């Protein structure tokens, strides 16, 4: 018996909707990463991009457990000497909740071309409305 290896031409992509309202940010991000990577499929092949499209709605209603809102920080560097910028997650969730979700999902994907291609199939929305009804996405319960 041989191991099944998917080819790029054999991949069928589906669309899924995840609702982040009232759920922990990390759990929604972990589920999105599995769907984006394609690990939920029986035809998963590690070296082939076989993931699906994921839409995450209600990003502004995702919750952070414990003291993460005040203690966790997003750090970025501008490229200039001494210009390390820090933003607390309570500020980030209030101003750019989709960025917080994107950072969480990005951290759970591989750091290579497969991960970058998977991140392009992620769509994030602050509210409950999205503009991908034509793709007939399936709702996934977390």
Helix content: 25-40%
Strand content: 15-25%
| Poorly predicted ranges | none
Q: Class by helix and strand content?
A: alpha/beta
Report the CATH architecture of the domain at 14-62 and 100-140.
Alpha-Beta Complex
- The name of the CATH superfamily of the domain at 14-62 and 100-140 reads Ribosomal protein L13
Main sheet specs: 4 strands, parallel
Q: How do the helices and strands follow one another from N- to C-terminus?
A: EHEHEEHHHEE
Query: From the alpha-carbon coordinates, what is the Rg to the nearest angstrom?
Result: 17 Å
- Tell me the distance between the termini: 35 Å
User: What's the β-strand tally?
Assistant: 6
Order of strands, widest sheet: 5-2-1-6
CATH class value of the domain at 14-62 and 100-140: Alpha Beta
Note down, in words, how this protein is organized.
The chain has 142 residues and is α/β, with parallel strands linked by helices. The chain has a domain at 14-62 and 100-140: Alpha-Beta Complex (Ribosomal Protein L13p, Chain: A), CATH 3.90.1180. Helices cover 30% and strands 18% of the residues. The chain has helices at 25-37, 68-71, 89-95, 97-107, 113-119, and strands spanning 15-19, 53-57, 73-77, 84-88, 122-124, 138-140. The strands form 2 sheets. Strands 5-2-1-6 form a 4-stranded parallel β-sheet, with helices on one face. It starts with 14 loop residues before the first strand and ends with a strand. The relative contact order is 0.25. The model has no long low-confidence stretch (mean pLDDT 96).
């Amino acid at each position: 018996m041989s191991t099944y290896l998917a080819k790029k031409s054999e991949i069928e992509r589906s669309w899924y909707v995840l609702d982040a309202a009232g759920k922990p940010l990390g759990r929604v991000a972990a589920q999105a990463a599995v769907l984006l990577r394609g690990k939920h499929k029986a035809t998963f092949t590690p070296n082939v991009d076989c993931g699906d499209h994921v839409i995450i709605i209600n990003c502004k209603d995702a919750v952070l457990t414990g003291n993460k809102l005040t203690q966790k920080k997003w750090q970025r560097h501008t490229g200039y000497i001494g210009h390390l910028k820090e933003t607390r997650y309570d500020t980030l969730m209030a101003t750019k909740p989709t960025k917080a979700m994107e950072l969480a999902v990005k951290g759970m994907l591989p750091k290579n071309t497969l991960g970058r291609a998977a991140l392009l199939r992620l769509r994030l929305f602050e509210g409950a409305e999205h503009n991908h009804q034509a793709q007939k996405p399936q709702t996934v319960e977390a």
